[in-house]
Amino acid sequence: SFAETNKGTLFAGTWNDGLYQYDRDLKLIPLNIRGFNEVTSPWMWSMFASRKDSNIIWMSSQPGIFKVNQT
Questions:
Q1: What pTM was estimated for this model as a whole?
Q2: Engineering a disulfide at 57: which of 8, 34, 44, 50 sits with its beta carbon 3.0 to 4.6 angstroms away?
């Protein structure tokens, strides 16, 4: 699954390999999501949802739903 942020970066969710974030040049960048440890959280990410008029991205994964504020 993929989701573009308001800043133009891209979240990419994978099957059992975790969550990744890329800049506009598709270079891998740190996730920097409070409360989320990208090393110990290699879950399956299946769906992202966001709205252009909101700073929230909703992400579903094996352990549950995450709400990420882009600000």
A1: 0.75
A2: 50
